[in-house]
Design a protein that fits this description.
Layout lengths: L2 H22 L5 H6 L6 H28 L3 H26 L6 H6 L2 H35 L6 H16 L4 H30 L3 H10 L16 H17 L2 H7 L5 H35 L9 H8 L3 H34 L9 H29 L4 H12 L1 H12 L9 H17 L1 H5 L8 H15 L4
Family: Belongs to the sodium:solute symporter (SSF) (TC 2.A.21) family.
Keywords: Cell membrane, Ion transport, Membrane, Sodium, Sodium transport, Transmembrane, Transmembrane helix, Transport
Main location: membrane
Length: 478
């Protein structure tokens, strides 16, 4: 596929995003940027959040991992659904009752100012790491597929994509993102369906026939029953539930979209519907992963993991499928990156710099927020370059592992606040939030010496949260 043609398609797609941003961003202010003036339609939010929840990592990594991990990712997805139900009926009523703009304001009311700042900083670090890892994966694919052949350096590609995101989120923030995410989720899901339909036709297989072929190769195994394995179904379902609670329920990026919905009941419907749809969508991604491995065998494709889908779509399929793949890929890229950039800007402005308490005019507040937005974009650039140096072959595994270390303290903080009535020695909270991930790291590193054949996987997040909870209990006020 001609790289110039693919580049023109990306530019045209971005022009459409800018038009949507222009139409939806009119008359925006800080309240629009942070929580969309609490006037977002819950159905739009639910549909758009699919794109944010999945990202380019799911689009590329989940299908690519089927060859080694089979359909085991569906175990985690079942846990996701349980997590979304808990968010809807435990966390959302709390956030709406307190009328929060930043969800970490709860920690301020419950534990104190330093706990509040600690929670905000944990989110900032966690989301920065997770969002830039997702961004890197897609930027790297675009670089290898299109821009290397045009002589464009990786750093320039990253700068241009970040500039695109800044342009359409600079004014409207959440108010704009609710609409652009809906557009992008639509393109991503259409790409998934069209690519799958083409492969079925090319392989001359029906839906059930293809499942039968996948089953012969062992790809369709959903539940792992080996209790010692990292992929044991109980561990994966439990980890999936807690990953959702932390990476959605106590994550400012995901919650600020839910809080932009006017009524609590509608926001709860948004969350439950999102969970149900995600189970179906990820099942489709796994099905497509099985098809990719069948297709790759017939076409003698050597690529594995994250490189499998891009290689097949761009080098072993017709031009129109290559175009659909690129559109779907960038549609998967933008929802996770734009939402994270907006959420990090919101958290820094409100939680760290106390923008709402500053005695300055609305115009000055907007100028301050825009400067912070640019600083966040620069930090994205630095992190993407770091991930380029790391260059891990399966980014979804890396992201979920990093989440176990970074989100654990947030899980412990919120659990302690909700399920106990103790006050804590506020000034000691940061030490607990640093100690828990460090202990978790050593448990993970030396788990073979400690537990023998028993393997700790994604449930490391729960261990980290429990360590934080225990640490807060130790520093409770008598």
């Amino acid at each position: 596929m001609n790289p110039i043609v693919l580049l023109c398609i990306i530019i045209a797609y971005f022009a459409l995003l800018l038009w949507v941003a222009y139409r939806t961003g009119k008359g925006s202010n800080n309240e629009s940027f942070f929580i969309g003036n609490r006037k977002s339609n819950w159905m739009l939010v639910a549909f758009g959040m699919i794109g944010t929840s999945l990202s380019g990592v799911t689009f590329v990594s989940v299908p690519g991992a089927v060859g080694t991990d089979k359909f085991h990712y569906l175990q985690i997805t079942i846990g996701y659904l349980i997590g979304y139900v808990i968010i809807a009926y435990v966390l959302l009523p709390l956030y709406y009752r307190l009328k929060l703009t930043s969800i970490y304001g709860y920690l301020q009311e419950r534990m104190g100012q330093i706990s509040y700042k600690s929670g905000a900083w944990i989110f900032i670090v966690s989301r920065l790491v997770g969002a830039t890892a997702r961004l890197y994966l897609v930027v790297n694919i675009l670089q290898l597929a299109i821009l290397d052949s045009l002589g464009v350096p990786f750093i320039v590609t990253t700068l241009v994509i970040l500039a695109m995101i800044i342009l359409y989120t600079y004014e409207g923030g959440v108010k704009t993102i609710v609409w652009t995410d809906t557009l992008q989720t639509t393109c991503m899901l259409l790409g998934l369906i069209i690519c799958s339909a083409y492969m079925l036709n090319h392989l001359n297989l029906g839906f059930f026939e293809s499942l039968n072929e996948m089953n012969k190769l062992g790809y369709t195994e959903v539940f792992n029953t080996d209790a010692n394995s990292k992929a044991f179904f109980f561990k994966q379902i439990l980890a999936g539930a807690f990953i959702t609670i932390t990476m959605t329920g106590i994550d400012q990026e995901m919650m600020q979209k839910s809080l932009s919905v006017t009524k609590l009941k509608d926001s709860q419907k948004n969350m439950v519907v999102l969970g149900i749809i995600l189970v179906g969508v990820i099942s489709l991604f796994l099905f497509m992963g099985g098809l990719l491995h069948l297709y790759g065998t017939t076409e003698h494709v050597a690529s594995l993991g994250d490189q499998l889908f891009p290689d097949i779509a761009l080098n072993h399929m017709p031009a129109f499928i290559s175009i659909i793949f690129i559109v779907a890929l960038i549609s998967a890229l933008f929802p996770s990156a734009d939402g994270a950039m907006t959420a990090l800007t919101s958290s820094l402005c409100i939680d760290v710099f106390g923008l709402k308490e500053k005695n300055i005019s609305q115009k000055e507040q907007e100028k301050f927020r825009k400067r912070v937005h640019l600083i966040v974009a620069f930090s994205f650039l630095i992190m993407v370059v770091i991930f380029k140096i790391i260059n891990d072959n399966s980014m979804i595994g890396l992201i979920l592992k990093l989440a176990g270390f970074t989100y654990g303290p947030l899980l412990g903080l919120f659990a302690f606040g909700i399920f106990t009535k103790f006050k804590v020695q506020d000034k000691l909270v940061p030490y607990v939030c640093i100690a828990a991930p460090l202990i978790s790291f050593f448990i993970d590193k030396y788990q073979e010496n400690m537990f023998g054949d028993f393997k700790i996987g994604l449930e490391l997040l729960i261990i980290n949260g429990l360590l934080t909870f225990f640490g807060l209990w130790l520093i409770r006020k008598k």
